[in-house]
Write a structure and sequence with these properties.
alpha/beta; 328 residues; 16 helices; 8 strands
């Protein structure tokens, strides 16, 4: 074979090899995208973490550094809006949009929920109904204000969250800690406060014949120095299903509002009106359960009372006589 023929054949062979073996390797994008997350989880975790960051993972430490803010927290409605949305069978988001307000709003313009009348006393136009909810704010008094408290504000709402009563209360002792960061009470606000005796008289009128709803009601009633029949009390801090959330201990109102209702309260200064609405909504969500528990408790109480009545006394006396005979 001549040299030129060999050269020609070699060139053709090279061209054939170049066709069979591409000069640039194909980039395996699909393979890499599938395998990489399976090898180290980095891509999959990064893309999913934005969607799966639950609010309960937000700790005080990372919250203080600015981390952990989630859409769940940002979009939680106020207790007022959640209650009124439930009343009108509409979502809180749609209700806020309908009235051009935010989810954190505690009033709806041009409606019966137009706004709270701070320190207005008894409302002349709102009907109380059968169920009312109460909440109080306290200030610290005396030489140990972290221990000793006095009533500084009381608010009452009806079943639909409408304000029935709101008043600042003038403490009888010297206020040594206004607890403004929590209570919202300032020296200026207490200048227009009503004496305790006037507030007591107003609250007594509202309580007459009503079922009273509240959270840790004993504290509120003690602060008011008032009583109420136990059979007419519905306390959200003592409701068994709610106590289960705190493993049998007394659950905080803020926690119940968040976990049961999905609403935010007490993020800064407390509002006794807003807290009363949150308590009423907690009661409404478990109303049947509250009433069943109430019937069970008071049926048992009636049975004990009946056993201790005249007939029960006779049985007890007879039993005593029999015991004496045995002793003899």
């Amino acid at each position: 074979m001549e040299l030129k023929d060999l050269s020609s054949n070699w060139k053709q062979l090279q061209k054939s090899l170049q066709r069979d073996q591409p000069s640039k390797p194909t980039k395996r994008k699909t393979s890499d995208d599938i395998l990489q997350p399976q090898r180290n989880g980095a891509k999959r975790y990064k893309s999913d973490s934005k969607l799966r960051r639950p609010s309960k993972r937000v700790t005080p430490a990372n919250k203080a550094m600015g981390f952990g803010t989630s859409k769940v927290i940002d979009t939680a409605p106020s207790a007022s809006l959640a209650l009124w949305a439930e009343d009108n069978d509409i979502s809180a988001k749609d209700l806020a949009a309908a009235y051009g307000t935010t989810l954190k709003s505690t009033s709806l313009p041009d409606t019966k929920y137009a706004g709270d009348s701070i320190n207005a006393g008894l409302s002349p136009s709102v009907e109380a109904g059968k169920y009312i909810a109460i909440d109080c704010e306290m200030v610290g008094v005396g030489p140990t204000p972290d221990i000793d408290s006095a009533l500084a504000r009381v608010s009452v709402v009806n079943y639909h969250g409408q304000q029935l009563y709101d008043s600042f209360v003038l403490p009888k002792e010297a206020v040594t800690d206004y607890r403004t960061a929590v209570s919202g009470i300032t020296p200026h606000l207490l200048r227009s406060a009503r004496p305790l005796e006037i507030v007591q008289a107003d609250i007594v009128k509202l309580l007459d014949g009503k079922i009273l709803v509240g959270h840790a009601l004993r504290n509120d009633l003690d602060a008011l120095m008032l009583g109420h029949p136990k059979r007419d009390i519905r306390d959200t801090s003592r409701h068994p299903p709610y106590r289960e959330l705190a493993k049998g201990r007394t659950p905080g109102l803020k926690r119940l509002a968040k976990e049961v209702l999905g609403v935010d309260i007490q993020d800064g200064e407390h509002s006794s009106v807003e807290d009363a609405r949150a308590t009423m909504l907690l009661f409404r969500r478990e109303k049947d359960g509250f009433e069943k528990e109430h019937i069970k408790r008071w049926s048992r109480a009636r049975k004990i009372s009946a056993d201790a009545g005249p007939e029960g006394a006779k049985n007890h006396s007879r039993g005593g006589n029999r015991k004496r005979k045995v002793k003899k």
